[in-house]
Design a protein that fits this description.
This protein is of the alpha+beta class and 212 residues long. The chain is built from 4 helices and 7 strands; from the N terminus they run βααβββαβαββ.
């Protein structure tokens, strides 16, 4: 499960965030029919763009939430490093998709699916900021649930201060906050992550959804 360095800095859901250059001017009408939304497996030739989109999305979320950037980055002035994204994409049980609406790329997501335990994790989810608040993220999540009816427990995490994420997961997608992760208590959220990698100021909520 992806865990950004929180240190009082924001990320986006996509979220838990959103875009390549050619998407900057792409706008969807508020009455757009979301029946045309689909999840398309990530192609290797699109991998670099996917990482770039995700990083740009998280930066956008930071500006939207705080108005200015702080000085807490993973590397290369990015809120989420390319290495972190690639670890999610290359995870043992990973499934990576582009979110496509009427043949236009509008976001992406990474899942970790364990069919033996019937448990799934939402590693990353981002939506192009120019199509925020149009139901795309919720429609994408509904598509995930339809794709994996065998999964009975879903989990994801997000920083404690990400109000947009918390609203999205709890009020739109039916998740519940089940744990508060901090320097005293937290799970292992990155594959092969060492216990000491958790920062003193890192604070996250763990969300869980149980499918009856």
């Amino acid at each position: 499960m992806f865990r950004p360095q929180t240190n009082n800095r924001p990320n986006a859901f996509a979220p838990v965030g959103r875009f390549v250059n050619y998407l900057h001017e792409f706008n969807i009408d508020m009455k757009e029919n979301l029946d045309g939304l689909k999840l398309v497996p990530l192609q290797e030739e699109d991998r670099v763009n996917f990482i770039y989109d995700n990083q740009r999305a998280f930066k956008y979320g930071a500006l939207e939430e705080f108005g200015v950037r702080d000085d807490h980055f993973e590397d290369d002035d990015e809120i989420i490093s390319s290495d972190t994204i690639e670890r999610s994409i290359d995870g043992e049980h990973a499934e990576t998709f582009r979110i496509v609406l009427n043949e236009e790329i509008v976001g992406g997501l990474v899942l970790s699916i364990d069919k033996e335990t019937q448990k799934g994790e939402l590693e990353l989810l981002f939506v192009n900021p120019h199509v925020h608040s149009k139901g795309i993220g919720q429609a994408a999540w509904q598509a995930v649930e339809r794709m994996h009816p065998e999964i009975k427990i879903w989990e994801t995490i997000t920083p404690y201060f990400e109000k947009r994420n918390i609203h999205f997961y709890v009020n739109r997608c039916g998740f519940h906050i089940v744990e508060y992760w901090n320097k005293y208590f937290h799970g292992k959220s990155i594959p092969n992550e060492e216990e000491g990698n958790w920062g003193e100021d890192d604070e996250m909520f763990l969300f869980r959804k149980t499918i009856e």
